[in-house]
Specification:
The complex is a heterodimer of chains A (about 350) and B (about 130). Helices cover about 10% and strands about 40% of the residues of chain A. In chain A, the strands form five sheets. In chain A, strands 7-8-3-10-11 form a five-stranded antiparallel beta sheet, with no helix packed on it. A five-stranded antiparallel beta sheet of chain A has the order 12-21-20-19-17, with no helix packed on it. In chain A, a hairpin with a 4-residue loop joins β13 and β14. The mean pLDDT of chain A is about 90. In chain B, about 15% of the residues lie in helices and about 30% in strands. Chain B contains one helix and seven strands, in the order αβββββββ. A five-stranded mixed beta sheet of chain B has the order 2-3-7-6-5, with no helix packed on it. Chain B has a two-stranded antiparallel sheet with strand order 1-4. In chain B, β6 and β7 form a beta hairpin. Chain B is elongated, with a radius of gyration of 22 Å. Classes of the chains: A mainly beta (about 350), B alpha+beta (about 130). At the A-B interface, β17 and β18 of A face loops of B. Chain A: InterPro entries: DUF4466, PARMER_03128_N. Chain A: It comes from Chitinophaga flava. Chain A: Pfam families: DUF4466 (PF14725).
Chain lengths: ~350, ~130
């Protein structure tokens, strides 16, 4: 490289500076709105999509008043959402809301009815507008059905206006978790203390004796001089960890347990916590090869990772509440089937 | 010829700068500063369970002369999955490093950790003796 090449360097930097200065001073112009029917959609719900829970969307549609008004909106799910059954509450199934919302001065969302209640037929939810409206945001609640477990689901939102225009918005695909969930089981000391991960249910001694192959854990509460308190122990664990417990016949499974803290899953803990979710990949990557078969001294808001003796299930048990006086607890379970 | 002279000059200068930096800030193989301190001891010891909560049932007994740490842990502690935490004197470091869960379940053969002083000249091996609450 000769000296004359170096003389270009200041020129290069000067042009860079000039360019930066030019972009800074670029004039802002108000964007021109599209003069047609438009739509937009966001997914409002967070975390893994679990069978029996909702996926919630907000679907916005608008058309200039000079062009016409909104006629109808509809959503097509690739796997039809859970349908309402006799005796269900109106909002317990898949539906497209018939109201638009505004937030009042107190921060409360106030509904304004704009159409008919959505009709669900073969995965299609349709709302027909009964009021003259030009802009509306409808919420869509997709109640995840059993058929969607482990699959992906897509949604097609569309709307029509009185001038014959149609708009469409695709959402997804969203993966539906394989795991199951059971909330608020109440194990009690020396009574309903036999926990089956396979059934996600609690049994007493008589019921456990009838289903010995399903009993994975024993809940017990002991107030001893050493740390014990509320505990989950595998039936096959050393007797030191099952003080005063006489196991029903053939209840002898060896379950692995690993204590956890600060895994306050949003689904299991209720609405108290924000954005911690136990999802399928958490179970898949879990290594419990060196875990023991007992977990003593369980506290409120703690949890336990579980792997059943036959390797069929992995689970996360969240301790919602412990009651020393009543010698009981309230637990919630997420379970993942490995095999 | 002139070109080679410039390259040689740059290489020489780089070597000089590098060596001068090394002299002022000596670092060991881990990139940690080697200082003049010869103190070498453990000042505190913590033991966390798989849930990162303490499993100590009482304070540790650290004997800096005998180089032992005696620690009683709670009944029902998962001894195979523990995370030890050593508090060391300034500039000292630990060998082996703690990179994950440690298996303390073999109570008959306690784990040993060596503390290395700030000047990297003094090494003291501590034995961690775990007992379970009864």
């Amino acid at each position: 490289m000769t000296g004359k090449h170096f003389s270009y360097i200041p020129l290069f930097f000067a042009s860079l500076l000039l360019m930066a200065a030019c972009t800074k001073n670029k004039d802002y112009s108000v964007p021109t709105p599209k003069n047609e029917l438009q739509n937009d959609c966001i997914k409002r719900s967070l975390g893994p999509n679990i069978v029996g829970l909702n996926i919630e969307f907000a679907y916005a549609i608008a058309i200039p008043a000079s062009k016409g008004k909104l006629v109808s909106a509809q959503v097509v799910a690739s796997i039809p959402g859970l349908q309402i059954k006799a005796g269900d509450l109106p909002n317990s199934a898949t539906y497209l809301q018939d109201s638009s919302f505004y937030t009042n001065g107190s921060g409360v969302d106030v509904p304004v009815g704009v159409g008919t209640r959505s009709v669900t037929k073969e995965g299609v939810n349709v709302t027909t507008f009964t009021k003259d409206t030009n802009a509306v945001t409808l919420r869509y609640f997709y109640r995840i059905p059993e058929e969607a477990r482990g699959k992906t689901v897509k949604f097609t939102f569309s709307a029509t206006s009185s001038n014959g225009e149609t708009v469409t918005y695709e959402m997804g695909p969203y993966t539906i978790a394989k795991m199951d969930m059971k909330l608020n089981l109440i194990p009690t000391n020396n009574d309903k203390c036999y926990l089956s991960i396979a059934d996600m249910a609690l049994y007493n001694a008589t019921e456990a004796a009838a289903n010995p192959g399903k009993i994975d854990l024993v809940y017990l509460y002991r107030s001893l001089s050493v740390q014990f308190g509320h505990a989950l122990v595998a039936p096959a664990a050393p007797k030191d960890y099952l003080p005063g417990v006489t196991l029903p016949a053939n209840v002898n499974r060896d379950t692995k347990l690993s204590k956890a803290w600060n895994v306050q899953d949003f689904h299991l803990a209720g609405l108290k916590y924000g954005t911690t979710f136990v999802d399928d990949p958490d179970f898949e990557k879990l290594d419990m090869s060196t875990s023991p078969d007992f977990a003593l001294g369980l506290k409120e808001e703690a949890g336990v990772w579980v792997e059943t003796g036959d390797g069929k299930y992995r689970a996360y048990i969240f301790i919602n509440k412990v009651d020393n006086t009543g010698q009981s607890a309230r637990i919630s379970i997420k379970r993942y089937t490995l095999k | 010829m002139k070109k080679y002279a410039i390259i040689n000059c740059i290489l020489l200068m780089t070597a000089l700068v590098w060596s001068s930096c090394k002299k002022e800030t000596p670092v060991d193989e881990d990139g940690l500063l080697i200082t003049a301190r010869a103190e070498c001891y453990v000042s505190n010891f913590e033991l966390l369970g798989a849930d990162f909560q303490t499993v100590r049932s009482k304070a540790p007994v650290i004997d800096t002369v005998a180089c032992t740490i005696q620690q009683e842990v709670l009944f029902g502690t998962d001894l195979k999955n523990l995370w030890p935490q050593f508090t060391l004197v300034t500039d000292a470091k630990l060998d082996p490093k703690i990179t994950g869960k440690v298996d303390f379940s073999d109570l008959a053969n306690p784990k040993k950790y060596t503390v290395v002083s700030g000047n990297r000249q003094v090494r003291k091996t501590y034995t961690v003796i775990i007992t379970v609450q009864k």
